[in-house]
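user: Please review this fold.
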Amino acid sequence: MLFKFIKFRPLPFMLLLISSLSMFNASAQIDSVTASVDKNPAMADESIVLTVVAFGSAKGDEFNPSELEENFVVGRTSVSTQTRVVNFDTTRSTTWTTILIPRKQGTFQIPAFTVGNKSTQPITVRIVPVSAASQSKAREAFITAEVDSGQPFVQQMVKYKVKIHLATNLQRGSMAEPSLENADISLIGKDKDYSEIVDGQRYRIIERNYAIIPQSSGQVTIKGPLFEAEVIDRSQNSFSYFNQTRPINRVAPDIVLDVQPIPANYSEHWLPSEFVQLNEEWQPELSEMKVGEPITRTLTLSVLGVSQQQLPEIAGQYPPDFKVYPDQPTTTSVTRDDNVIAQRVENIAIIPNRAGQFVLPPVKVAWFNTKTKTTEYAELPARSVEVAAAAPGSQSNPAPIIPNPIQETENPTNIQSDTSGQIAPTIKTIEVPSFWSLSSWILLALWLVTLLVWLITSKMNPKATTDKVSVDSSESESWNSLKKALSSNKVNDIYPALLNWQACLSEEDSVNLLDENDIADSELQAELKLMFASQYAHGDKSWKSDTLLALLIRFRQKIIKNKNNPPSLQPLYASQRVAH
């Protein structure tokens, strides 16, 4: 028996070797490749299952369905392999299953696919409209999509609404976002779940809303999102404890937008919307403004249907006697009733330096009304404010500090108490050493020598003390900037340049051009009022800066003349007066 076991033992190894050689020979090439679809014709919004089978040895990545993306939405592709051995004959096959959803109705051709050295036959598929479906049988699932505007302006928010209609029980599902090149897409709010009756059939509706902001003009196409789900299969008569499910795939129809460019005659910051509002708050109340005490102004800009990145800066202007400290602005977006509202909040700390009555210029934000196709302004009107003087003893007017004489306690740890209970330290006066007096005399002598040298130099060059005082370079630069701003005839450019030049013109006894009590030039005051009035007069572009420039030149020459010709001082001694 041992001999027989040894004699027939190599037989299993020989069978294994022959089987392996057979499988190797079978995998050396691909015998054939077939392609098929599960339905033809198909409706425009339902999925088609494309099955490609390669008999022989094939790699999993040899099939690529990307060339179908022009006419179909290409879903997931699954790969499976199978090997059979029958009477020492081994067959191997690889199967690719791809979900295809037609983008539109018509007749399309699925091209031939090559796997290894074999190719499939092309398939002609006919896609019929949804209306061609039989009325006797309700559609189990479909998707609709709509937009609130088919001709938006560039950077105008478009609300995109997609609805999933389900006439069967949903087990699980997921939906991708719509896609649009060169656009910002974001979800608005949460999904809504309700029911509707469509063509006599009750459907469960799952509604989802998106905000789409196109960034370029022209005709663009929003590609509908793909919905993939598993529903309970009622066609199978199964009494199993577990429900049988089957996959479904649906896609929303594409929507074409005709995006309009920015109007050629629009020159402001581009802010397309249907509603814009500008509000302000004061903490404390504006009526309580005092010199040296800070007051906070909060400006809030609310815009409907834009992203927070589109909000412009809120440009405010203030009199030169106000110190302004703006805080870092904050932006946010909120959703209310399926609408997106973007807000920008700016906090400005203001400290007045002088009491009196002042005028705060208006604050305006330009925007484009997408309903009326016109330019409008969200505006805070100009207002007059009264600044009260600081209370006596406040930090804005501190009392002068008088230094005490230098004193030292004789014994800091020995503190005596008088009969009244008050603490009375023992004090003695510190005597200044004699060498400090010597150093003081030396410094005095050096100062007298310096004064003598200056007197001699001034006599040698008498014109040195009578030369005209020239305006410093900072004033000249600010004056040139002001003239450049005046040439533009834009108040938003002129006002900051005017304040800068006014600050550089006179460091002492500064004159407020905007205060009638500080300047007696009535013509200049009248022209400044005309300039500010033209800023917030709607559509008034008649004001020109020529007259204001001439009045400012006259005013500047007068200031420079007063600085170059200060009142002369009489000589200290009569002998010096005779010598000169």
